[in-house]
Specification:
The complex is a heterodimer of chains A (about 110) and B (about 120). Chain A has about 110 residues and is mainly β. Chain A contains no helices and nine strands. Chain B has about 120 residues and is mainly beta. Chain B contains no helices and eleven strands. The chains are: A mainly beta (about 110), B mainly beta (about 120).
């Protein structure tokens, strides 16, 4: 049982916009920045979004396709212009002030139909 | 460019010990907090531990507290994870990750490729 809650799966067709939600509590998302990772099949996770909305340099070409948002104790990752290469697992994370650990969501498997 | 290379994984009997290493290059190692995160086969990510840039602060997941020890040698640009009393449920790929911000311990950023630890008799 993960501390942060994500839907186990999401899907969309090429060109579509998809959002993935991440729900937490006051001690994690409510108090700290949300991080998003992309894990392609057989690869290590890669930082996608930090500080709720910021994209690191080196995010896949057309970096504006990936965007993050946060409101209260929930956050979302939006992927626009869906492409087949976006098929991956996506994880949210945040520091938890009560537990003094980084907590992860269970991950969302994105399928491009 | 940033490089993190984990080593030391392998097959070990439950109850035994193993030490993982993570050799860093391409950034100023001594100014970044460093994390260990693991992923059991077919499962999600589980954060394990973090150490501050100077080694003065360490935090652990409850699942490994008292059994695992994180440490670093800034003169060698190397991060370690000493794993004692290993259990079958510790079987996972172990990733080291550099914090995204200098002097921070809350944002795992760049990740290595991982090393597989299998605790099995």
């Amino acid at each position: 049982q993960s501390v942060l809650t994500q839907p186990p799966s999401a899907s969309g067709t090429p060109g579509q916009r998809v959002t993935i939600s991440c729900s937490g509590s006051r001690s994690n998302i409510g108090s700290n920045s949300v991080i998003w990772y992309q894990q392609l099949p057989g690869s290590a996770p890669k930082l996608l979004i930090y500080s709720n909305t910021q994209r690191p340099s080196g995010v896949p070409d057309r970096p504006d396709r990936f965007s993050g948002s946060k409101s209260g104790t929930s956050a979302s990752l939006a992927i626009s212009g869906l492409q087949s290469e976006d098929e991956a697992d996506y994880y949210c994370a945040a520091w938890d002030d009560s537990l003094n650990v980084v907590v992860f969501g269970g991950g969302t498997k994105l399928t491009v139909l | 460019q940033v490089q993190l290379v984990e080593s030391g994984g392998g097959v070990v009997h439950p109850g035994r010990s193993l030490r993982l290493s993570c050799t860093a290059s391409g950034f100023t190692f001594r100014t970044y907090g460093m994390h260990w995160v693991r992923q059991a086969p077919g499962k999600g990510l589980e954060w394990v531990a973090v150490i501050s840039y100077d080694g003065s602060n360490k935090y652990y997941a409850d699942s490994v507290k008292g059994r695992f020890t994180i440490s670093r040698d800034n003169s060698k640009n190397t991060l370690y994870l000493q794993m004692n009393s290993l259990r079958a449920e510790d079987t996972a790929v172990y990733y080291c990750a550099k914090d995204h911000f200098e002097f921070s311990t809350v944002t795992p950023g760049y990740w290595g490729q991982g090393t597989l630890v299998t605790a099995s008799s």
